[in-house]
Amino acid sequence: MWRGMVVRTIRDNKMVALLFWLVLSGLFWGCAATAPVVQKTQEIGAELRCPVCGVHPAEQPRTQCQMIMGDGQQVAFDSARDMFSYLQLMDQFGYAKNQGVGKGLAQIWVHDYNSGAWLDGKAAWYVAGSDVRGPVGKEIYPFAERSGAEDFSRVHGGKVVAYAQIDATRLKMLKE
User: How high is the pLDDT of residue 162?
Assistant: First the structure.
């Protein structure tokens, strides 16, 4: 009787341990396979045009920005305002905005208004609606630090916002 219970307990514990390792390895491989890859900035060629307004982004070094898709394709913009307008309409251009792999959006890059350095567009702070005009009118300017955006806003007006706060309503106010 004891022997049967001991064998059954050892066998059951082995099954639990095996099940545990299978679940753990499945989680590991599942996460590794779907983790988005950070795409580096790409040079913006002179031949590229902004898909929203048709301006050549290469001619706007201070305000140009770019999106890199999961398949490595670059979409370049002359301004952050146009990039955010495009984000609102990505599905019409054949890209799924919430995917990080495949043909979806992998990375957004913007230029810091103060330094000109490339920054992660989702981590940047923005000033929307200032008196400083961009390539095609009212603009959204990106900043690496919130303090830089606040300093700019104090001098030029506009509202300091995070990436997630820029929506269709805010973009419409810039076009009026």
Answer: 96
Give dist(CA 55, CA 171) in Å, integer: 18
Output the pTM of the full model. 0.72
Q: What is the rounded distance in angstroms from the CA atom of residue 46 to the CA atom of residue 132?
A: 25
- List of residues 6+ apart from 78 with CB closer than 8 A: 50, 53, 55, 56, 57, 59, 60, 63, 64, 134, 135, 136
Residue type, 67: M
* Segment holding 110, helix H or strand E: strand 105-111
Q: Which of 112, 96, 100 is nearest to 149 (CA)?
A: 112
8-50 tens-digit pLDDT: 554 555 554 444 444 444 444 444 444 445 578 889 999 999 9
Render pLDDT for 64-94 as a digit per residue (tens, 0 to 9). 999 998 778 889 999 999 999 888 887 776 6
Domain boundaries, the chain: 1-35, 57-175
Quote the CA–CA distance of 66 and 106 in Å, as a whole number.
Answer: 11
Question: Cα(36)–Cα(65) distance, rounded to whole angstroms?
Answer: 20
